[in-house]
Every structure is written in structure tokens, then in C-alpha cells.
Design a protein that fits this description.
Elements (H helix, E strand, L loop, with lengths): L1 H4 L4 H5 L1 H7 L2 H14 L13 H10 L3 H17 L6 H13 L6 H11 L6 H15 L6 H7 L6 H11 L2 H5 L1 H10 L3 H14 L2 H14 L5 H11 L4 H6 L2 H14 L5 H10 L2 E7 L5 E9 L4 E9 L5 H21 L1
Antiparallel strand pairs: 1-2, 2-3
Helix pairs in contact: 4-6, 5-7, 7-9, 8-9, 9-11, 10-11, 11-14, 15-18, 16-19
Length: 339
Amino acid sequence: MNEIQSQYNDRDIDNPVAWLERQSDSGLRDWLRLSLWTRNSLPLVVPTTSRLAIELSDLINRGSSLLKTRVRSILPGLFQEWGRNDFLTVLDDLLIVAAKLRCANSEQYIALILAERLGQRPGSLLIRQRALSVLSGFGCTERSVLIFERHITDIEYAAICYRALYRYDLRYGATELTNIIRMFQESDSLGELDIIIRTLASDLEPADFTTIITKYLEIGEPNEIVDIVEVLRGVGVLTAELLMKSRRHQRRDLFKTLLHRCAASKLKVLLWQLESIGVGLISGPDETNEEFVQTLIFDPTSGIALMEAIIPTSDLKADVMSEFVSQSETIAMGSSMVN
């Protein structure tokens, strides 16, 4: 490695990219190892106000496509070389370089470090978060899915793992959301919970997000339905605009699930929650005079209103139907008095 360092001159310090391009594969590997493990990166000069991994990544990204390909082929081997007794800063820099160069072929070695080598050393929490974020950036795969499933039960890593999993398979968006909400509510981390749910909503198309909400409601406890709706409503992701952008069958499935699974004693609260976002549920006859649950959705942003029949009231459970019809009659009576 000392031989490598003797091969540069002042011109190479002025133009380290050209120097890198001239290195053999073994020379490039030795230089990267020396830079990361000893912090001696010459001919690259790292300002004291900057970070080695950032400067290394920027330098390599300024090079040719061939240089980036060569470095990507070297990085997995450097992850393999990192051992339990090596500095965490070395691993952190390796992770940053791999992320910035999109070195997805490092995935299995990062996963191995997480599973077997990192342990619980002081400072390992932040490194584990970085490693999970890098794996998430590469995209969850069949190889890494178990890593995310293992760490999602820890609040320190749950947000990273949740996003990785639902982007891999939308079903995780529903199956893991109950635990995510419970975990962050119990730790009083409501601000972080808001961010997680907003990120979920922004990552997905409205139709997909509506499907996630419906599947989530299908597995929630009936007595918790209004709590679930309150979380989504409070964060501002369950809106009339969202429902307008969803497909008709998705809206129907959502409202059917709400009415089928909501406890009768909670129905009044549910109807109020929906009304607060511009959604009215009432009973009324369709064109054949059959009594239906109907939705009236008004989106104040677009000024568009939409009315649809969902299900016959006879399909509701007896106690829910009784309560629902009672609420509808109250609403109708109030409207007639105003008129």
C-alpha cells in the first residue's frame, strides 16, 4: 500500500480522478482499503470540514462509467474484509460509498454484517440504521426481506423497515401497520408516526393507498375501527380527495369494510369522523326502491360532489343497521327542520 502512495505527484493531487482511472484493479482496491481503514486518501485531499466517504463518492462519481463499475465490483470484497474488531467509522463510510454509488451487489454482505458481525457495540444503533437504510435504498429483495422483518419490531428501526417492506410487497403496508401504530403510540412518538403514515400515503397512488387502508381495517379489531380512522383522519391522509381519486370498487370496498366491521356502539362516532372529511353515509332508496347505504362525497379542493350506492342496508348486521337507520333519520329530520 505504501507503493501506491509513492505513485502520485502534485499533478495527481490537482486531478485525482485521472490518477484513479490509471490504477489497476488491484491498485484501486488497495487505495480504497487504505483510504477507508487509515483515512489516508492521497492524492485525494479531504477538507477538514468534509467527510471522507462523501469526498470519495463524489470523486468516483466524477469519473468514467468504467471507473464506477470497477469500484462497484471492489466494494463487496471490502465489506467482507470488515471485521467485528474494526472501527464502526470504517463500516459507516463503506455504507455511504455503497449507497452513493448504488452498489447493490454489496447487499448480501451488508445483510451478513447485520446478522452476524455488528453486535451491540456502542454506536451500533446508528450504524444499523444506516445499513438498513442502504439496503432499503437498493430495494428489498428475497435475500433482505428477512432482515427487515426481524428489525421492524424494534422502534429504532421500524420506520425504515416498514417502508422497505411495503415497497417490496404492498401487503406489508396493511399487515404491519397495526403494530407500527401501536408501537409508536405506546412510546408517545406521535410525530414520528405521523411522518410514517404520510410517507406511506405519498409513496403510493391514491388507489393503492385506499386498498391498503381497507386491508388494514379488515384485520383490525372492530372496537378499534374508529381509532384507526381517527389516526388516518388526524394525519390528514384519509380525505375526500383521496376517495375521489380512488376507483369506484375501492371506495365501495372501503365503506363496506367500515360498516361491516365497526361495532354498532361506535357507529355514531364513525359517521361523525367521515362527515368531518366531507363524506356522508345515509340510507335511502335506489331507482328500484330498495334501501341502500349511499355515500355523498364532497371534495372542497375541486368542488366536486359524488353520490354512490354502496350496499343494501339489509346486508348490514342487525344492530349496525338499526343504529345506522336511526342516525340517517336524525340527519334527515335535521335537514327538514332547516328547510
